[in-house]
UniProtKB/TrEMBL annotation:
The active site is at residues 2, 605. The keyword Repeat applies. The lineage of its organism: Bacteria, Candidatus Uhriibacteriota. It is found in: Cytoplasm. One of its GO terms (biological process) is fructose 6-phosphate metabolic process. This is Glutamine--fructose-6-phosphate aminotransferase [isomerizing]. Catalyzes the first step in hexosamine metabolism, converting fructose-6P into glucosamine-6P using glutamine as a nitrogen source.
Length: 610
């Protein structure tokens, strides 16, 4: 996803901007650029990695105490220098960087071209900077005035930062649907699309809300609405530290974040488990606890791994809290005509809290009167702020594009929610205590699995030839299989398909031969015998099988080609453990193929466009 960094202060702006871009690299991009306002407005852009931009900057006189920078993930127009941001007006006096999509850019572009503006790119963004230039023609108009008027004519989404040669010391920012965070330092101000870019300078941040804009300068910041009404906002302190968002000696962020999972589980549960009462104490739901008691149906929305975590939660909540649950792809829910009553709660699951489809789904649910809850990792993110209440997953910054610790924390939050809703309803004290007791064991069980990484690497090596994979599981292990397949797909680009094991005979078995291996999740649980039959059916067709089962179950070694073992735990918590071998199998498969697991091709960490 595109990244924005901006600075105004007393230090040289260029190194601050370039370091900020490097901290946004994990979000995925195809080109980058930087604008500095010094004696004049200077802009340098390049296709490819930040290093290419660095090379282009060598020897350039980019001296100034104010500037903006951008990493672009192409939506309109191919990755090229001409399409890279910042974009400028006709005379090169205004520079603008933009995240989001301007849906009416063609209409704006036609009007501006007929007014004599010359366009140089294929992007939607360029229409905005020419519109600002056009509006500045009116005497006495400031950059802030022109930005305010311009964004009011935009349909779509934007997070922008704009500078102007004639107004040195002023950075104007605005947001609608694409995050903008302001960093407040000592006599200096930062702006970014993601707090990771500026966390090394300050942890005092202000998140702009939709329809807000701000003018940053050496005299401080002024936040206002698009009607130019002042908005008072005090900085809040980010919990994260710059170190937490670094690799700390691991080869990849993904490996670091997988290794953090035991501690993440402790953090997710910290202060929330009341083992004595077999209950979960969720401060974020305190204000809606009575309303939650009356809920008679849950709809859960999410994308990707968040969606699969929600599917695990569905089994938990129905089995142990007795609440009907529907899990919906956010990208579909937002276009359906969902039946929502005053006793429906809609839960949004999102690591970034900025996923466009999930945000749109929540807004749709709110419009229909549902109680909206969030299971979000990024504190202060849009979904966290727009839902009525919620539970932060406390996984810490997740930099690797593939969701690992965030997914584990999301599943764990669903277990806590199951206790919360269940103990409000029919769940007994003894059941609640049993679940709570087993939750407390999870960190050490995950630690024991992480220590087997070389075993998972060896298996990944044995299947390095495979270009296709079928991942299967039943009940709690069906979504676990879907999530495992997503990991292999998005990291190694192998065509891995997740399937409910009961569906194998309804089609997928036609795929099976010696060149099409299967990963079968078959812990010793309530459906083990049925899934064991799947293994036998695959082997009868010469298909190779990697089976993941429970320690002590020796019969699988006679049936499968390779067997991985999990410690015993409650059936509802198996997906937490199951994720570890599946994450590491996918990670090693990617590395063995020579790919960068932190930045898989075509993917972005947070999909803030439809
Ligand atoms: C999962 O590994 C992917 N990175 C992706 O599917 C991700 O889970 C999805 O885009 C949802 O992101 P969110 O949790 O930030 O909303």
């Amino acid at each position: 996803m595109c990244g924005i960094v901006g600075y105004v202060g007393k230090k040289a702006a260029l190194p601050i901007l370039m370091n900020g871009l490097r901290r946004l690299e994990y979000r995925g991009y195809d080109s980058a650029g930087v604008a500095i306002v010094g004696e004049s407005l200077r802009i340098v852009r390049s296709v490819g990695k930040i290093q290419s931009l660095d090379d282009r900057l060598f020897g350039e006189k980019m001296i100034g105490f104010m500037g903006i920078a951008h990493t672009r993930w192409a939506t309109h127009g191919v990755p090229s220098e001409a399409n890279a941001h910042p974009h400028t007006d006709c005379r090169g006096n205004i520079a603008l960087v933009h995240n989001g999509i301007i849906e009416n850019y063609r209409e704006l572009k036609e009007q501006l071209e007929s007014a004599g503006h010359a366009f140089r790119s294929e992007t939607d963004t360029e229409a905005l900077v020419h519109l600002i230039e056009h509006l500045l023609k009116y005497p006495g108009t400031t950059l802030a005035d022109a930005v305010r008027s311009a964004v009011r004519r935009v349909r779509g989404t934007y997070g922008i930062a704009v500078v102007r040669a004639e107004e040195p010391g002023r950075v104007v920012v605005a947001r609608l649907g694409s995050p903008i965070v302001i960093g407040v330092g000592g006599g200096e101000l930062f702006v970014a699309s993601d707090a990771n870019a500026i966390i090394g300078h300050t942890r005092r941040v202000i998140f702009l809300d939709d329809g807000e804009m701000a003018v940053l300068g050496l005299d401080g910041y002024q936040i206002s609405s698009l009607d130019n009404l002042p908005i008072a906002k005090e900085p809040e302190d980010l919990e994260w530290t710059a170190e937490a968002a670094q690799k700390n000696g691991y080869p990849h962020f993904m490996m670091k974040e997988m290794s953090e999972q035991p501690e993440v589980l402790r953090n997710t549960m910290r202060g929330r488990l009341n083992a004595k009462n077999g209950n979960a104490v969720l401060g974020g739901l305190r204000d809606v606890a009575d309303q939650a008691r009356e809920i008679d149906r849950l709809i859960v929305v999410g994308c990707g791994s968040a969606y699969y975590a929600a599917q695990v939660g569905e089994y938990m909540l129905e089995e142990y809290a007795g609440i009907p649950v529907e899990v919906e792809l956010a990208s579909e829910f937002r276009y359906r005509k969902p039946i929502i009553t005053s006793r429906t709660a809609v839960i949004a699951v999102s690591q970034s809290g900025e996923t466009a489809d999930t945000l749109a789904a929540i807004r749709e649910a709110k419009m229909k009167g549902a109680l909206t809850l969030g299971i979000v990792n990024a504190v202060g993110s849009t979904i966290a702020r727009e839902t009525d209440a919620g539970v932060y997953s406390h996984a810490g910054p997740e930099i690797g594009v593939a969701s690992t610790k965030a997914y584990l924390s999301q599943v764990t939050v669903f277990a806590l929610l199951t206790l919360f809703f269940g103990r409000q309803r029919q769940m007994s004290l003894s059941t609640g205590k049993r679940i709570a007791k087993e939750l407390v064991r999870l960190p050490e069980l995950v630690t024991s699995l992480l220590e087997r990484t070389n075993e998972y690497r060896a298996v990944a090596q044995r299947y390095a030839w495979a270009e296709d994979f079928l991942y299967m599981g039943r009940k709690y292990c069906a979504p676990a299989a879907f999530e495992g397949a997503l990991k292999l797909k998005e990291l190694s680009y192998v065509h891995a398909e997740g399937y409910a094991a009961g569906e194998m005979k309804h089609g997928p078995i036609a795929l099976i031969d010696e060149g099409f291996p299967s990963m079968v999740l078959c812990p010793v649980d309530s459906v083990y015998e049925k899934t064991k039959s799947n293994v036998e059916e695959i082997r009868a067709r010469r298909g190779k099988v990697i089976a993941i089962t429970t320690e002590g179950n020796n019969e699988m070694s006679r049936l499968a080609d390779d067997v991985l073992y999990l410690p015993k735990t409650l059936e509802m918590l198996v997906p937490v453990l199951m994720a570890v071998p599946l994450q590491l199998f996918a990670y090693h498969a990617a590395v063995l193929r020579g790919f960068d697991p932190d930045m898989p091709r075509n993917l972005a960490k947070s999909v803030t466009v439809e």
